[in-house]
């Protein structure tokens, strides 16, 4: 039951983007298309899940004063694996995501979950926490990417949705991501306030 709660809390109660407001850097840069959002979400989820599990498994062997550098080494290992796999099997996506894949190493969601959760809980709960937070991050990226791709380019999944649609180019730029995030936060707070 606790593991299921850990999984669900990352989706709604502690969504990294809309509740905790963590890891917003990728939202600004790579959320111009749904394909980019899926790619970044899957990459971050893989790193989050794997690093949570390993950190939870080795937490008792790491001296307290060097725990953060050790966590960064573990996270960097999985980011390197992710980047190499992406370069080998999806070079176009790797080029589109650019520097933001290596920056997962210092993403505050991944480091925050390592320090706040994985270092204090067992492997199973850390696994479900990583999955839940990763899925929550991915869903937030998909929502923002979908809105930005539709309003900024008139497309979804790179396919034209409405032929006579005049796109709002500001939405396709990084300030557009801030605008979309702000409007979504306002919407979610409005719904939360009504409950």
Key phrases:
mainly alpha, 195 residues, single chain
Write the layout of secondary structure elements.
Blueprint: H1 2-9, H2 25-29, H3 34-58, H4 67-89, H5 91-97, H6 108-118, H7 123-153, E1 155-156, E2 159-160, H8 169-172, H9 174-194
Antiparallel strand pairs: 1-2
Helix pairs in contact: 1-7, 3-4, 3-6, 3-7, 4-5, 4-6, 6-7, 7-9
Largest sheet: 2 strands, antiparallel
The arrangement of helices and strands along the chain is HHHHHHHEEHH
Spatial ordering of strands, largest sheet: 1-2
User: Cα-atom Rg, whole angstroms?
Assistant: 17 Å
How many strand elements?
Answer: 2
CA(first)-CA(last) distance: 25 Å
Mean pLDDT comes to: 86
Q: Spans of 5+ residues with little confidence (pLDDT < 50)?
A: none
Provide structural commentary:
This protein has 195 residues and is mainly α. It has one domain. It is built from nine helices and two strands; from the N terminus they run αααααααββαα. It has a two-stranded antiparallel ribbon. Helix 4 packs across helix 5. It starts with a helix and ends with a helix.
Short description:
This protein has 195 residues and is mainly alpha-helical.
